[in-house]
Fold this protein.
Amino acid sequence: MTRGRTGCPATGALRIANSVRWKAVGMSRHNVGIAGFGVVGGGVAAMLEKNRAEIRRRTDADIVVTAVAEIDPKKAAEIRLSEGRVVPDARDLLKDNCVQTVVEVIGGTTYAKEFVLAAIAAGKNVVTANKALLAAHWNEITSAARAKGVTLGFEASTAGGIPVVRTLREAYIGDNVRRIIGILNGTSNYVLSRMTLEGLTFAAALSSAQSKGYAEADPALDISGADSAHKIVILARLAFGEDFRIEDVHYEGISGVEQLDIRYARELGYRIKLLGVAKRRDDSVELRVHPCLVREAHPIAHVDGAFNSVFIEGEFVGDTMLYGQGAGRWPTASSVVADLIDVATGRAQTSSIKPGEGRLKIRPMQEIDARYYMRFQALDKPGVLAKISGVLGANNISIASAIQHERRSGQSVPVVILTYPAREGAVQQALSEIGSLDAITGKCVLLREEE
């Protein structure tokens, strides 16, 4: 028996030949264990197997999947690895001294947290695609990794195959990020795109997303804005160097957007997109996710389908926009493999964000300023628009434009108002007052513009 450079057993002619070759060319072997062999885990293994020789040629690192944890015996029997073994319990990866880095693609935040912390305690590097885990337990996990001297890779946790984590952590390290706006959820973007481009209702567009595999049977996490909230808090930490909490993010979903709003937005020169927004103003930061009016001229307005895009504004570099596949097997696997290469070549780093410094405060949602789109259902009778505008004026909200196309005397018709910049708190107060008017027959639809 011979031993490779990792100190792990190497048996058979192939292992002996590999050991000799590593010593001859200074190449290092890096052994990986994958916890969770579903869509993403399987994609990571397949990508490493297919591109192993090319990765060696480019990086002098030989990255090998040596162990996979899969609890389902039927699935385990179908796994084929050139050199690895299959184990029934993810904790077996932590007992394996040959495994240097574990890939966590289990999902969830309970067992996944226990596993990641145990892996770090065992001296393993960790690469994860789990945005919910990082959003909820960032400080505990990153502190443990730094204390143990291992690295944590999480490029795949945000925007799939788009290298936004690497961009913020490396390319913007000497700049001051002022703003991030991003389409961070492919499901919601697909739904809104179908509504915009094909005139589908929300229900029909969502059904289409489910039939194509872009949405889960229970799509609540995506369409509620919660998934995007997990991602924007991770990006805000990297951009502003402060340990924000998921509870700091105000989020709203897209289920209230109707075909009427799509059409009126187009008439006003906008498209509607679900955006994650992280915006710094002096010593405060806005963290929010909600449907936004985006001007047709803005490039992010034309990011359609299941694609993601992140727009970053830096003080010195100006504007940058990243675009690409935001989810799915191969884009996510590509980001995981990029992190594995960084770990194997020594380029990886664990983000150093100090908790609780308090340099930046969270700006309450009531204090943000924006232009607002309001759609009311109001009885078609004289004086209604004057009453609405009177309430808005009393709350220091100025009207930029108003639309009322339909006329049905005595019946309910849509009235659309676009405001000049106003304070959120004043807008909410005005809506409460307008909603109590006898002529208002339904709940107001409120959208904010994002420039």
Summary: Residues 79 and 86 are 8 Å apart (CA to CA).
